[in-house]
Give the backbone structure.
Amino acid sequence: VSDTGKIWPPKQEAIEAAARALSEGLLVGFPTETVYGLGADARDDAAVAKVFEAKQRPKINPLIVHVRTLECAQEHVQLSAAAIKVAEAFWPGPLTIVANRKSECSISLLASAGLDTLAVRAPRNKIAQSLLTAFDGPVAAPSANPSGTVSATTAIHVAAGLSAEVAYILDGGPSEVGIESTVLSMVDDIPSILRSGAVARADLEKILGKISDAPHPSGAIRSPGQLASHYAPILPVRLNATSADKTEALLAFGPKPIEGAASTLNLSVSGDLSEAAANLFAHLRALDRAQYNGIAVMPIPNRGIGDAINDRLSRAAAPRPI
Ligand code: TXA
Ligand code: MG
């Protein structure tokens, strides 16, 4: 049972109170079009440190800084002509751009986790935009869930994992997209996708041309979010299921769900991938109950946002750290 007493409808007074809390170095849960974020003043080292503690996030995993506009982002990072072009095409929206920090960048170095780069994004969600306007500064915000667990797509999900850590949770209803932003590195000459997400590769390539998949020359993990086990429910997850037994919960997709599971939730009966993305994390949470032995997942086509859905599911199914 979680404490929902910190959840507020997104009226202007609540948004202003949340903005004041940010100014005081406190944490705020807020909706974006992708998933809910756990926000902190990105210029305040102590506040950013609180985000890592609250989520129990490894300190090597940098945060995304949320800004109102492209111009705001350019106060902090050096954007190439191509980066500006892609930002103009997709901002405000579910695209995160990684670029080199400017020397005068005022963002806490902790947010970059020791890298010379910074991830920035201008969200399109109205409540997120109002919060950024009321706060009038950059907000560092990872997804509002304990590190490694299923992301939050409702205010109740935020409260379930982090109610003790936040001053306010702004309730924007279920997330519109339901899956995180695409993380695009524009650091090198050839752009690369560090995390698949809400903006499909093909749509980025229409603007940027070929996007690289090549491993980084240094061999280092380019984006710690690429680590194997992530987005994980407590139950084991079994992918590409073509049958299910009566001890399992089934995450189905499409008009012909397989039979035999103890319980079934369908990501999209009509086979719509956007609807499936919006339902993904809430359905995983709902099926994650001790009465089942595991969650079986039907195959999801790899086109469009299906690519990001399969990325999240394969990490949910990966062997867990002990
Ligand atoms: O949709 C989203 O992106 C949500 C909402 C709240 O905006 N945020 C989110 O944050 O998913 P988080 O912290 O869960 O994921 C951030 C991802 C991680 O994979 C992280 O490693 C990567 O972005 N990242 C952040 N800064 C980076 C940097 N400087 N270089 C490479 N990867 C970076
Ligand atoms: Mg996350």
